[in-house]
Specification:
With 439 residues, the protein is of the alpha/beta class. Helix content is 35%, strand content 23%. Among the domains are: 125 residues, 3-Layer(aba) Sandwich (Rossmann fold), CATH 3.40.50.12160; 57 residues, OB fold (Dihydrolipoamide Acetyltransferase, E2P). The strands form 7 sheets. The chain has a 6-stranded parallel beta sheet with strand order 2-1-3-4-5-6, sandwiched between helices. Strand 18 and strand 19 form a beta hairpin.
């Protein structure tokens, strides 16, 4: 019997990976068909993220809409997964008693079991048994060329603004055998590009034949698979960037020419208040080391604007850092208070209007440098991994450059999904590129 699943994923790439794993687990028991309409579904899963402000409100708002659907279909199973599930727990059932299941990121492998239990009473399961989760995951059931692969979870840095250590636990790395088994499964299902994931991905560590492995070692091992054409990783912490990782940019051609390294602020005072444990100068030195190996490598980052205590001079230091590094496509947000974090108790001295103005200024400058890099690609030939059909034109294909730009192109009827092809960039648009294949 086939069941229809509607799954809504909030937040980051880690959650996209987790949603895929929920599908794999459900498919291991019975055939699952993905629906894009909750009204047609037998099971609805909200895979939540608690990083941004009002995350809980968004989930409860969505549950309010689902309540009306369940009133018409009493057999509908509603599940809330992810970090908001870990954070809110029983509160979700109290506010929305029609929800069948609440389960955290570390309980994905139990999805079928928990759904069965929820037939009679609502179930809440939010444990931190990360290793067991990965050991008990079923084989990959989805066919994709560009895939995510979680190699570690959680974070032990305890930055004052961040809720991750409280919703996903401290840093735990998967063992090498488990990771490589999944790599083989992914390859069997058509994977040619792998993005290694972790809240602090470069804190990965594993023991193999009495040797301590770091992420650089893992990248080199995965690069040995002929079927894998390109490797990426995200998200890194500056304090865990080491020679082991940097050497890969010299010795592993399959490692994409791109580095995402969150800085959050250019002010040493704000970095100290955030408990980031590095200085602006230390961050610049890391970037300099990377550029000694790959001078043209694009650097992207994350920024928080309006953190408690941020003065205008602090913000100007962030702007100066952007001007110095000339960051590529980056993420920037207004600081949002997260419950249970140390920063939630700090005095917020910046008005909403000032935060918004600073964010606008920062994003305008970031966009200038990102646009400049896109324009430099005009007329060049880029090695691109074809990820599938274009979303807007089914007669065209979509690919990504090493620096993660989307390129749309005509394939002349040839199925190129999963292949590396050379594309000449003929047009630079606001959010993508257009090109033609170079034979």
């Amino acid at each position: 019997m086939t069941k229809k699943l509607y799954i809504k994923t909030y937040g980051c790439q880690m959650n996209q990976y987790d949603s895929g794993k929920i599908i794999d687990v459900l498919n291991s028991k019975e055939k699952i068909e993905i629906s894009d309409n909750p009204e047609d579904a037998d099971i609805v899963v909200l895979n939540t993220c608690s990083i941004r402000e009002k995350a809980e409100d968004k989930v409860y708002s969505e549950l309010g809409r689902l309540r009306k659907i369940k009133e018409k279909n009493s057999n509908l199973k509603i599940a809330v997964a992810g970090c908001v599930a870990s954070q809110e727990g029983e509160k979700i059932i109290k506010r929305a008693p029609y929800v069948n299941l609440v389960f955290g990121p570390q309980d994905l492998h139990k999805t079928n079991e928990l759904l069965e239990k929820s037939d009679s009473i609502p179930v809440v399961e939010t444990t931190f048994d990360e290793i067991k989760k990965f050991d008990e995951m079923p084989q990959v059931s989805r066919s994709e060329s560009s895939v995510f692969l979680t190699i570690m979870e959680g974070c032990s840095k305890f930055c004052t603004f961040c809720v991750v250590p409280y919703t996903r636990g401290e840093e735990v790395s998967r063992n090498l055998d488990s990771i490589l088994k999944e790599v083989v499964d992914l390859i069997k299902n058509g994977a040619t590009e792998i993005t290694l994931l972790g809240q602090n991905v470069n804190a990965f560590t594993a023991v193999w034949e009495d040797r301590q492995l770091r992420i650089g070692d893992l990248i080199q091992i995965i690069a040995e698979f002929d079927e894998i054409k390109r490797i990426r990783f995200t998200t890194s912490h500056p304090n865990d960037v080491d020679k082991n990782l940097l050497d890969c940019y010299q010795s592993v051609p399959k490692l994409a020419n791109q580095f995402h390294l969150p800085v959050q602020s250019g002010s040493d005072d704000i970095l100290r208040r955030m408990k980031r444990d590095y200085t602006k100068q230390k961050y610049i030195e890391i970037i300099s080391e990377i550029k000694k190996i790959r001078p043209d490598i694009p650097i992207s980052s994350d920024f928080i604007v309006g953190f408690p205590g941020e003065k205008k001079s602090d913000f100007h230091e962030t702007m100066e850092l952007v001007e110095e590094v000339k960051f590529d496509n980056s993420y920037s947000f207004i600081y949002s208070q997260r419950p249970g974090t140390p920063a939630a108790g700090m005095k917020d001295n910046v008005s909403d209007a000032e935060k918004k103005q600073r964010l606008d200024e920062l994003q305008e400058l970031l966009n200038i440098y990102a646009t400049e890099r896109s324009e430099k690609l005009f007329g060049s030939i880029q090695s691109c991994l074809v990820t599938g059909k274009s979303k807007k034109n089914k007669d065209e294909y979509q690919a990504r450059t090493e620096c993660n730009r989307v390129v749309n192109f005509a394939s002349n009827g040839i199925d190129l999904a999963g292949q590396l092809v050379n594309i000449r960039v003929n047009d630079v648009l606001a959010n993508s590129l257009r090109g033609t294949i170079e034979h």
